[in-house]
Design goal:
The protein is α+β, with helices and mostly antiparallel strands. Helix content is 57%, strand content 13%. It has a four-stranded antiparallel beta sheet, sandwiched between helices. β3 and β4 form a beta hairpin. It is extended.
Length: 260
């Protein structure tokens, strides 16, 4: 028996190629997307890009060679591809051609231009009319499924000076907040669930809200910091993206109306 095991181990050691994974073909990648139930997700993304490209053709929106060159240079800078060799190596790792990469750059440029064409002049007015949605708030959270437990936690924090952080680590069912001592992140008010948004709208930094019931359970929240709404470049991009994505969802049919 011992000799057999030793012989099998030797045979395995002499065949390291068995451990090598051959690159998947395009057909095998498509097969994987099918059997892993991801084909619909990626098909939707492809269809969105086709729609954007078709609408840009209708509106005569194009990307010039100079714009493509500038965008390509910016991409290489961002990904630290400072030489031709580094760029070619990266393309090989991604299993794409220069033409594939250029098409991705082109679609990104066309998408940006289409957003500006449709909604660039509407950003300021939309922001002013929905300014409160673009306030940001840093929140800490304890999420539990039982109301009695939630009330006990609130009492411990407010009347017994229990640590919010310690209570979150011990009791929260929210994985992210539990791992971060209750801290749930910084979000725009527009991104927050309506029940929570209403409950915290008038609170000051350091105040506690809850328990607040949602479909997820009972939330106990603490306001860590309010960030004033201001139309910075990043907020403008958020507004533009929001308007554009809403518009994309609303258009349908073989001949979509491109006017927002």
């Amino acid at each position: 028996m011992t000799e057999t095991l030793e012989r099998n181990n030797l045979d395995f050691a002499q065949k390291p190629t068995l451990l090598e994974i051959a690159p998947a073909s395009h057909a095998e990648v498509i097969a994987y997307l099918n059997y892993s139930h991801k084909i619909a997700e990626f098909s939707a993304l492809a269809e969105r890009d086709i729609l954007i490209s078709n609408i840009c053709n209708q509106l005569s929106i194009t990307a010039s060679d100079e714009e493509l060159q500038q965008a390509g240079d910016a991409f290489r800078q961002e990904h630290k591809l400072f030489s031709t060799a580094e760029t070619l190596s990266w393309l090989q790792q991604q299993r794409i051609t220069v033409e594939d990469w250029t098409q991705g750059i082109r679609i990104t440029l066309l998408t940006k231009k289409l957003k500006e064409h449709l909604f660039g002049d509407s950003v300021d007015s939309h922001y002013l009319n929905n300014r409160n949605d673009y306030k940001r708030v840093a929140l800490s959270q304890i999420l539990v499924v039982d109301l009695t437990n939630a009330l006990q936690i609130v009492q411990a924090i407010q009347n017994e000076n229990a640590s919010f952080c310690a209570m979150a680590i011990e009791h929260s069912r929210g994985k992210h907040s539990k791992q971060n001592g209750g801290f749930a992140g910084i979000n725009f008010m527009a991104e927050i669930m309506p029940e929570i948004k209403q409950a915290i709208a008038e609170l000051k930094e350091g105040e506690i809200a809850g328990p607040i019931q949602t479909k997820l359970g009972y939330h106990i929240l603490r306001i860590e910091k309010w960030y004033p709404a201001e139309l910075s470049d990043s907020i403008r991009d958020e507004v533009l993206d929001s308007l554009f994505m809403t518009w994309l969802k609303n258009i349908s049919g073989p001949n979509p109306q491109v006017n927002p």
